[in-house]
Design a protein that fits this description.
Structural class: alpha/beta
Strand content: 15-25%
Strand order of the largest sheet: 2-1-3-4
Oligomer: single chain
Number of helices: 4
Distance between the termini: 18 Å
Order of helices and strands: EHEHEHHE
């Protein structure tokens, strides 16, 4: 499976490296290969939903999953830009919030 990670650095600033390591471990266990849409993208994850939507629209790719660390990461975006959230999620077969999963990846 191919997917993209949306990660809010602001929420996890003190423990950012540990959180990213946990996310990467989960991706590996779940068999999800992170995709970079922009060849100039430095990280293997996105931190800004607007940037992710822009790159998705330019690439016109549809992927298996959007992996988000927690609902808190996108809550403001969803409430302020509900139509952009619907458009963003339409590029993915499923949206996975890691906070909702236990260690085995089961909801």
């Amino acid at each position: 499976m191919k997917g993209i990670v949306l990660f809010n650095k602001g929420i996890h600033a003190p423990s950012q490296n540990g959180t990213l390591t946990s996310i990467n471990n989960w991706l590996f266990q779940a068999g999800i290969q992170p995709v970079k849409l922009n060849r100039f993208q430095f990280n293997a994850f996105y931190t800004i939903p607007h940037a992710l939507l822009y790159d998705l629209q330019k690439s016109d790719l549809y992927l298996d999953c959007l992996v988000i660390d927690s609902f808190l990461s996108v809550e403001t975006f969803i409430h302020i830009f509900p139509e952009k959230w619907v458009l963003l999620t339409s590029y993915f077969q499923k949206v996975i919030f890691l906070q909702d999963l236990d260690m085995t990846g089961q909801a």
